[in-house]
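Subject: Re: docking follow-up (zinc ion)

Dear J.,

Thanks for your patience while I sorted out the input files. As discussed at Tuesday's group meeting, I've set up the holo structure prediction with zinc ion included as the bound ligand rather than trying to dock it afterwards. The sequence and the ligand SMILES I used are pasted below, so you can double-check that they match what you have on your end before we go further.
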Amino acid sequence: MTEISHHIPEDILDTYRAGTLPHAFGVVVAAHLSLCDECRARQEAGDMIGGALLSRAEGAALRPDARDRIMAALDAPPPPPPIRGSGVFPAPVMAELGGRPPRWRMLGGGIRQQILSADREGSLRLLYIPPGKAVPEHGHRGLELTLVLQGSFSDSEGAFHRGDVETAHDAIDHQPVAGPGAPCICLAATDAPLRFNALVPRLLQPIFRI
Ligand SMILES: [Zn+2]
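The structure tokens for the complex came back this morning:
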């Protein structure tokens, strides 16, 4: 397996740890953590620092047993995920799929997607891109996190393989192209509708909710 070389940025990991990351992005982070020892170690180190700060805090407003209860909660093992990973899909993605395989919707050119969730804070989707095919060129009004689950893609930012995360901010215009071999399957979270450059995809956007 190719080593992971594109990780979750520190500020996003901090927000995830604080529990304030919108759902769509939280699922991408959780899925990356399930594949990446390095980020899992950073995450656990951050939790330990948080616990140490908490133990030094002089919480006058806290009930006397509050610190013990919080520390016990931090020490408690996380509950087991209710749904296990399957195939290329880690447990957090299978949970979004309700434990079932994806039900792809055709977008044309062999590209498929399934929207997993969408609300005002962001949307989460799975994308399936045949080898050598490009996702229509687009920029972003907000943040996009894309995690590769199978195959690979490359764009102006580099090459991304299974486990790699691309972090695209609104300044980036990019056109990801799937690599050779297995179709590229990726999990993408966006916090605003994508802004397509070509006229036709822009007309299709309301239909496909890209
Ligand atoms: Zn990582």
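A couple of observations from a first look. The two ends are 30 Å apart (CA to CA). The chain is about 30% helix and 25% strand.

Let me know if you'd like me to rerun anything.

Best regards,
T.
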